[in-house]
Amino acid sequence: MYSFPKNKYPFESGSYGSLKIKDFILVSDWINQHFRLTTAYAVQGKLTLFPWQIEPVNAIQKYNKVIFIAPVQTGKSMLSEAIVGYVIDNETCNIMMIYAKKETVMDVFDERLEPMIRQVPVIRKYWSGYDDDLTKRRIRLIHLIIRVASAGLKTEIATHNAGFVYGSELAKWPKKGFSQTMAVEGRKQASRMLGKKTKTLYETSPEHDQDMSYVEAHKPGNLFLKPHYPCPHCGHYQLINDRQTKEIPNKNGVKDHNPERIRREKAAYFECSNCKKEIFDSNRLKMSFKILWAAVDLDTHTKTIETITPDGKILNRKKASTVVFNWNRYIDTTWSFSECLASYFEALNSPNPENLKTYRNEDMAEWVKLRAKRFEDSFLRSKCEKYKQFGSDAYVPDGVSVLLLAVDTQDNGFFYTVRGYGRNLESWLVRADFIHCDMKEFSNPADVLERFNGELYRYPYQKKNGQEIPILYGFIDRGGHRSKDVDYIVSHSQNISAYIGSTNKNAPLIEQKASGHYFGMTERLSRIVQKNMESNIWHLPKDIGKDYLEQVINQYDEEFTDSRGNKKKKWQCKDPDHFRDTENYLAGLVIMLELQSQLFDDMNVQAIEKNIQAQEKEPPEEKPEENIISDFENEMKGMGW
């Protein structure tokens, strides 16, 4: 018989726990039971997850890669560090934690990591108690090693194999001569070879569509989830964002876009995309407890591509290895609709265009578009001048000699733009708005015309000196399902013609057919608008609406490389782009009226202004539909146009 010495080996308090086969536990349950907020957080103690946080933290158990795209100070790093705590307690694998800068590594270790190891009991038991095992470069626990690395140093990322990788503020990782994400994938190969499933967790606030977070979040096959809230009135699940946040007018019935008033009067609400009823902040807490994470398309992030049943079930979810959770600051129910709208108008009216980018990044958690020729709305903000389109101090700029109108027709109403043109074809947007006129409510074309004119001329178009400027001419889109309404508007308007987009690639930019309708090459006209927007003679009012800014940049050339490596361009039209179409129609009007030559001559400009004023004094005469176009053309020629 062999005689074995009975030596007792010293086990640390966490050694037994690390060797024990543990029962399966959801990450969310582990966090609620064991995780503690340390002195690194504003509030310390037990952490209880909100209902909306449960699916994001549990995702690491189902998907190989999880990405949190969120505003600052909305819990993305806190949730990520809680997940790291779960991995320490439940998985036996090395961990790599990557931060944007070396200085950040130092700060995060002092303020977050070291307190977590020392102060959270369920994690502290795995630490030997020796300070040498708890350093800024490496945290050595009984059963695993945590490497804390800087994204700027390849040697730090490439020298530590890990079964779990956590990357913080991915969008801010510096561009280097190597790909950090590829280096991360390479570090996980050893784990794969041993049959160990590897996991990656990234969190960040976004910046622009060329940063690393955009690339990672938009890889083909990714599942892109956003929080959907049920309407308290109709139960319809929808996204809540600033696009549907509406301003309540002041006591004079004017939407003055004044941030101070909006905050003071809480003058904002959210309009349900389904029933159109008003949703107020008092509804949001109950709505937040019923949040569902549903997939949206990777292109616009606004179109839900999954079916949500009335009882709150998600149908037809595709399989994926990477899931993206993208939420905006509305996830915080204390951030009111009025605060959102006020913040937007403050950023919009700021002389620093970076403020609007910051609002998009850090409040709405959206990437600013930089690709190809697509403009940022902050670039358009630089086109804004001191004049306004609405309110008591709204006026038509002095340089305007001619006002033109363009209307894009929809089933629920009309998007319209009135733009003023002056010498050298310099132009100012005078008014851009939407006329709500749903086909379901307005079935009589005469009622449609009354509604249309009532809203179009609700406020006068006048200069500072009180001189009113009439709308010389206009195009209205005849597409969609309400051609009868458009024909009625045209037949009862002396200066409006129907516009139809041409499908003939060899057709002129704009031409009139025998029917009297004008056919235009909308894409080519849109390229003209693109050039105008780039110029220094294309202006916007100070109070331009966010809908206009978002829509007018949704047509652009996108560069791509074909299979042979040749660089090419493809014209993109993203929905919604109604206001961009109105600008396209205006470009066609300028060509049709030959303003490009008329407004380059001072004598012609004076003659035009004189004729317009003379025409304004004469009472309008209603004409039969078939004669309006030809008669008005003859009148224009008689004036020397």
Molecular structure report:
The chain has 641 residues and is α/β, with parallel strands linked by helices. It folds into 3 domains: 23-217, 3-Layer(aba) Sandwich (Rossmann fold), CATH 3.40.50.300; 227-315 and 334-362, no CATH class; 383-544 and 578-638, no CATH class. It is built from 23 helices and 27 strands. The strands form 6 sheets. Strands 3, 4, 5, 6, 7, 8, 9, 10, 14 and 17 form a 10-stranded mixed sheet that branches. Strands 23-24-22-21-18-19-20-25 form an 8-stranded mixed sheet, with helices on both faces. A 3-stranded antiparallel sheet has the order 11-12-13, covered by helices on one side. Helix 13 runs antiparallel to helix 14.
What's the SSE blueprint?
Elements: H1 15-19, H2 27-34, E1 36-37, E2 45-46, H3 51-58, E3 65-69, H4 76-90, E4 95-99, H5 102-119, H6 121-124, E5 138-140, E6 145-150, H7 154-157, E7 164-168, H8 180-187, H9 189-193, E8 199-204, H10 212-217, E9 223-230, E10 237-238, E11 245-247, H11 259-265, E12 268-271, E13 278-279, H12 284-288, E14 292-295, E15 307-308, E16 314-315, E17 322-326, H13 337-349, H14 354-362, H15 377-381, E18 402-410, E19 413-421, E20 427-436, H16 445-456, E21 471-477, H17 483-491, E22 496-501, E23 510-512, E24 518-520, H18 522-534, E25 538-539, H19 546-552, E26 555-561, E27 567-573, H20 578-592, H21 595-598, H22 602-617, H23 625-638
Parallel strand pairs: 3-8, 3-17, 4-6, 4-7, 7-8, 9-17, 18-21, 20-25, 21-22, 22-24
Antiparallel strand pairs: 1-2, 5-6, 9-10, 9-14, 11-12, 12-13, 15-16, 18-19, 19-20, 23-24, 26-27
Helix pairs in contact: 11-13, 13-14, 16-17, 18-20, 19-20
